[in-house]
């Protein structure tokens, strides 16, 4: 099983994915919730009895998906192949972790708690920048952002130590000789050109028309595609929140009582326009104070003196409770235009009062409108409940919806073509807030013909409906959808012909024919790419497909299917070997990369050897592979 997983590392996509999985361990990525249900308690991975449940696996996979999206561009789209590679990477990671955990347990290897603690405390990521000491708050924030518990993090530290002790330290450094470095560099920089043919449904011509019998058969075979869903018509009583408040508004008596109980809350406190200059240096502050006392312009002095807030040396017109405690008392004790120097925290501040607006007591008439709004907002829930009760009582008492609407002072709105699962659009203005929503649909489909719903609270008010018509789900006449059938048939026919054409071209080439002749026979153009390296592409081929082509033998033909049932048929044309001499530094760099790669491969082999004798089971279907 381990060796099968190792094959995933051969493609560039997989290497990118495995890198993303590794990076996510030391990076901070947000984690979105993953769907959980009873089935997710099933086991996905079992390593000698150490199991990983579906919910645990889904959580890990979602974390890596988020990490990959954060690393990619905004227009990044995750393909099935990439998702499979990412899933395979997570499987590989969990299997490796489980093998290490089981090896530690089987050999009774333990790491002292104090040693683990020392490692965590020494990590610079968790240090307080002010004193360099370990910060529990920073550590907890890191865990939260990474979606890990403290136990998860401790377990990861133990695995890193186990990997070092059981795997990494066992790897003997391997020196890559110059001749091998040159060969590797030559292979990496080899360039190849290719001949290729593009086949897409747009290039295919259909030589016949669909027959009437085929139209009929298509109509019968795909009846569900053409089924017109059930629709309903309804009369809607809608009472907006504004209308509810108007009908159930607070009385004058309620407003007067509120004013008596909260009279002081409506008084306007004294306000002052406070000018302020902030300095870090006391001498500069004292010099600015002296200039201000001599009558200089406050804003000019702030700018000339280099005040920290020189661009805006004022606190504005403020009440005492709006100021910090260190400023509030002095600012409201100062006479007009008499500056004062204060020490506030680590700063020195010059303040001066430019304007004083006296406190003012609000009369009942001045506060009435504000109180009415407060009471209406506070009472909206009760008002809505009362309005719903009045509507339901009237309906249950036998009144028709039109009578109820008249009593409420509103008109009924008729809405047609309501389907169960298609949000409504272009509703009348008073119902426009329901455009794109299913609230009205749910009401209309909950009741039978001529039945009236109970009053339901929506976002902007209360609604009740009467179902006035029902049109059952039905098939249209075949002539009504014939044009649609022809379009669908044409698409399918072109897709099938495109695949047949591509397969025939490949068959001709594999049977000894030339790709150029096979393309010409079908009126298709033969293209030739420029010589490219492994890191370049043509014809929108993926990096994985380019890598595959560089392993293709001369004369061999490859076919790749792309979205939209398009096909690219490719064969190698010319190989250009790399011949430039490498400098000593460049040769050393190639050797280092090769040594690192071989060391990583040897480490993986060492880790795989630990799994020998372990029973490893993986449920790929539950892991979520798209194939």
Offer a few descriptive terms.
627 residues, alpha+beta, four-stranded antiparallel β-sheet, 16% strand, extended
Strand content: 15-25%
Mean pLDDT: 84
Helicity range: 40-55%
Low-confidence stretches: 1-39
- Tell me the radius of gyration: 38 Å
Our count of helices gives 24
Overall structural class, as computed from helix and strand content, comes to alpha+beta
Main sheet: which strands, in order across? 12-3-14-13
- Can you summarize the main beta sheet? 4 strands, antiparallel
* N- to C-terminal distance: 18 Å
Number of strands: 15
Basic shape: extended
Structure overview:
The chain has 24 helices and 15 strands. The protein has helices spanning 2-6, 12-26, 54-71, 80-106, 113-121, 136-146, 150-166, 178-188, 212-221, 223-226, 241-247, 252-261, 282-293, 298-304, 325-331, 364-378, 380-396, 401-408, 439-444, 478-510, 515-520, 543-550, 584-610, 620-623, and strands spanning 43-47, 50-53, 191-199, 231-240, 271-279, 314-319, 340-344, 347-357, 413-419, 456-457, 461-471, 526-528, 558-562, 566-576, 616-618. The longest helix has 33 residues, at 478-510. The model is unreliable at 1-39 (pLDDT under 50).
Please specify the SSE layout and strand pairing.
Blueprint: H1 2-6, H2 12-26, E1 43-47, E2 50-53, H3 54-71, H4 80-106, H5 113-121, H6 136-146, H7 150-166, H8 178-188, E3 191-199, H9 212-221, H10 223-226, E4 231-240, H11 241-247, H12 252-261, E5 271-279, H13 282-293, H14 298-304, E6 314-319, H15 325-331, E7 340-344, E8 347-357, H16 364-378, H17 380-396, H18 401-408, E9 413-419, H19 439-444, E10 456-457, E11 461-471, H20 478-510, H21 515-520, E12 526-528, H22 543-550, E13 558-562, E14 566-576, H23 584-610, E15 616-618, H24 620-623
Antiparallel strand pairs: 1-2, 1-15, 3-12, 3-14, 4-9, 4-11, 5-6, 5-8, 7-8, 10-11, 13-14
Helix pairs in contact: 2-3, 2-4, 3-4, 8-23, 9-20, 12-16, 16-17
């Amino acid at each position: 099983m381990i060796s099968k997983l190792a094959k995933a590392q051969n493609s560039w996509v997989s290497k990118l994915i495995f890198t993303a999985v590794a990076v996510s361990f030391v990076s901070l990525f947000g984690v979105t919730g993953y769907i959980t249900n009873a089935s997710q308690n099933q086991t996905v991975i079992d390593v000698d009895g150490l199991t990983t449940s579906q919910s645990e696996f889904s959580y890990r996979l979602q974390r890596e998906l988020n990490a990959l999206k954060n690393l990619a561009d905004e227009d990044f789209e995750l393909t099935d192949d990439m998702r499979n590679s990412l899933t395979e990477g997570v499987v590989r990671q969990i299997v490796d972790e489980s093998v290490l955990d089981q090896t530690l347990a089987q050999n009774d290897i333990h790491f002292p708690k104090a040693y683990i603690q020392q490692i965590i405390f020494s990590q610079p990521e968790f240090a307080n920048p002010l004193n360099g000491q370990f910060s529990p708050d920073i550590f907890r924030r890191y865990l939260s952002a990474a979606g890990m518990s403290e136990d998860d993090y401790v377990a990861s530290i133990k695995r890193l130590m186990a990997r070092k002790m059981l795997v990494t330290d066992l790897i003997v450094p391997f020196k890559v000789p110059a001749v091998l470095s040159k060969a590797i560099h030559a292979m990496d920089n080899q360039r190849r050109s290719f001949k290729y043919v593009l086949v897409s449904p747009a290039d295919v011509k259909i030589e016949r028309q669909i027959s009437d019998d085929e139209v009929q058969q298509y109509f019968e075979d795909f009846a569900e595609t053409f089924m017109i869903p059930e629709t309903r018509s309804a009369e809607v009583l809608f009472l907006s929140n504004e209308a509810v408040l108007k009908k159930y508004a607070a009385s004058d008596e309620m407003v007067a009582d509120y004013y008596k109980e909260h009279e002081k809350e409506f008084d306007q406190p004294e306000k002052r326009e406070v000018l302020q200059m902030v300095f870090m240096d006391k001498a500069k502050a004292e010099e600015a104070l002296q200039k201000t006392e001599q009558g200089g312009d406050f804003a000019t002095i702030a700018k000339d003196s280099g005040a920290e807030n020189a661009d805006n040396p004022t606190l504005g017109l403020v009440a005492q409770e709006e100021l910090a405690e260190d400023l509030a008392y002095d600012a409201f004790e100062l006479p007009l235009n008499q500056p004062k120097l204060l020490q506030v925290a680590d700063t020195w501040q010059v303040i001066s009062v430019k304007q004083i607006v006296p406190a003012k007591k609000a009369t009942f008439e001045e506060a009435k409108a504000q109180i009415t709004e407060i009471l209406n907002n506070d009472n909206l829930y009760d008002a809505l409940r009362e309005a719903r009760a009045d509507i339901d009582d009237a309906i249950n008492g036998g009144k028709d919806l039109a009578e109820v609407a008249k009593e409420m002072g509103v008109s009924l709105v008729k809405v047609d073509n309501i389907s169960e699962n298609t949000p409504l659009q272009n509703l009348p203005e008073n119902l426009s807030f329901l455009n794109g929503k299913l609230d009205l649909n749910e009401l209309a489909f909950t009741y039978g013909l001529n039945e009236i719903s109970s009053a339901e609270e929506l976002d902007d008010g209360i609604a009740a409906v009467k179902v006035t018509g029902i049109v059952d789900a039905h098939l249209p006449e075949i002539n009504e959808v014939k044009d649609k059938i022809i379009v669908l048939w044409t698409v399918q026919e072109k897709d099938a012909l495109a695949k047949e054409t591509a397969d025939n071209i490949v068959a001709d080439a594999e049977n000894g024919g030339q790709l150029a002749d096979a393309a010409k026979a079908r009126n298709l153009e033969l293209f030739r790419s420029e010589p490219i390296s492994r890191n370049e592409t043509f014809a929108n081929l993926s990096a994985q497909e380019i890598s595959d082509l560089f392993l293709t033998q001369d004369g061999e033909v490859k076919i790749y299917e792309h979205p939209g049932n398009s096909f690219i048929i490719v064969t190698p044309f010319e190989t250009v070997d790399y011949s430039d001499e490498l400098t000593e530094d460049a040769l050393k760099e190639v050797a280092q990369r090769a040594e690192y790669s071989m060391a990583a491969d040897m480490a993986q082999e060492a880790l795989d050897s630990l799994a020998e004798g372990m029973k490893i089971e993986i449920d790929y279907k539950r892991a979520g592979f798209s194939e």
